[in-house]
Design goal:
Elements lengths: L1 E5 L6 E4 L6 E3 L8 E3 L4 E2 L5 E3 L8 E5 L3 H20 L3 H21 L2 E5 L5 E3 L12 H13 L1
Helix pairs in contact: 1-2
Length: 151
Amino acid sequence: MEINTFCPECENGLFLYVMPPAGLIPCKHCGKGREAKGHGELDAQGALAKCGLCDCTEFYRQKDFNTKLGLWIMGLIVVGAGFFFIKNQVMIAFGILVAGALLDLGLFFGLGDIVICYNCRAIYRGFPISPQVEGFDLKIHDRYEFNKKKL
């Protein structure tokens, strides 16, 4: 069980291995840290029911993979295939695309899921995932983001 969040002051990563108690989670980099409300809850199956940092009850799931790295990999595959298409080496280009699709398929089935809080973006890794937690929903995300900007 691991909870990843960040310091709002310096954006340094903060890593927790238990549900945080109420109070300040100190940052080792800048000394300030992040406040935790400390009311995190797990349901009967051990799945996350309430965020321990902000008390939010809405979460989404995604694959446990760095999205920036994934975009770079896909970009390189497209550029590589495009290069060979331009050189009129269609079989090599299709080979690159098929290899990219197989890599994507392998990562999709090989990697586990993480749960992310819509409000504070804390990442919960190693928890059982409730069937109610679905993929990212832009409508829910926008509700939290626009409420933050109003404050």
